[in-house]
Write a structure and sequence with these properties.
With 337 residues, the protein is of the alpha+beta class. The protein folds into three domains: 106 residues, no CATH class; 67 residues, Dna Ligase, domain 1 (2-Layer Sandwich); 121 residues, ATP-grasp fold, B domain (D-amino Acid Aminotransferase, Chain A, domain 1), CATH 3.30.470. The protein is built from eight helices and 18 strands. The strands form five sheets. Strands 17-16-14-15-18 form a five-stranded mixed β-sheet. Strand 1, helix 1 and strand 2 form a beta-alpha-beta unit. The longest helix is centred in the first third of the chain and has 20 residues. The protein is globular, with a radius of gyration of 22 Å. The chain starts with 6 loop residues before the first strand and ends with a strand.
Length: 337
Amino acid sequence: MAARSPEVLILTQDFDPTVDPVVRSLKSKGARVVRVDTSYFPQKLSFTSSDFEGGRQVLRHRDSELDLSAMSGVWYRRPTAFEFGDEMGESERQFARYEALHGIGGILRATDCLWINRPDVDAVADLKPYQLAMAKKFGMRVPRTLLTNDPDEVARVLKGDEGKLVYKSLSGGVIHYPGAFPSGLLTTVVGDEIQEHLGRVRHTMCQFQEYIEKAYEVRLTVIGNTYFPVTIDSQRHETTQVDWRASQDQMYYGDYRPLPEQIVKQTQELLDGLGVVYGALDFIVTPDGEYVFLEANPTGQFMWMQNDLGLPMSDCISDLLMEGGPFQRGEVKQVGY
């Protein structure tokens, strides 16, 4: 009897160009792929988990049917919210939403396949203060950080001899104004103007960190046990010296530099502690060669590096999803460019 082809579920929104190369890679390797968005539920998507008639766990969308108990992997990318019909009032829609979250979440959580990454794991792993605490636990250097909504605490640090401070958003810094494109908050050096705006710290939790001098930066994409460390020469241009995302024209890449063994070991421990299979991590490398951990994004983008540097990231993700789970952390392979 021929071996059954691996079956992979991808949960993401309709427009997600990052997913397309992975789908092509999976299909070229013989996998069966079902790609859906959770917004299809309940009108175009159904889930069934039954112990009757021998039992079954099934996802159905149009002409596609997927045996959830036989999946090798799930890629939880960027799905959007459930969409319920207008025939229900708001109270009924809220009830239906909670029922769907518990029902679908429970069905999918009960699978023992490989996840990149499970949404409950992502939700915890994405908490930046928790990441910093975990990184320190495993011996990484992290920037000294102040988290507060108390203006007096910020004033106290500013009066001290602590050097420059930066303000950095905890949640990615995207603000959605009605009728406008999303606006992003970049990491910013705190200037004298903060003195007249300190009261605004009271509005929410704010993160301030010590400014650390850089030789260059590293964007590390981890896909299972494969590491893709990419050097970013952020100090080459004035606009990218504080936050390399500020580049409007091009990304300034540096030569490939493999990570030191100690950083690999600490990163493995951190990712194991966070429970993630995939992550995009940012490091500063100081003029003295010391690595400073900034943050980990469990759903970070990678396609820009694949396109610019020819890195086989899509193939790596497809191999991992086809291999199945549960995931085992093991020997690290670093891939250069």
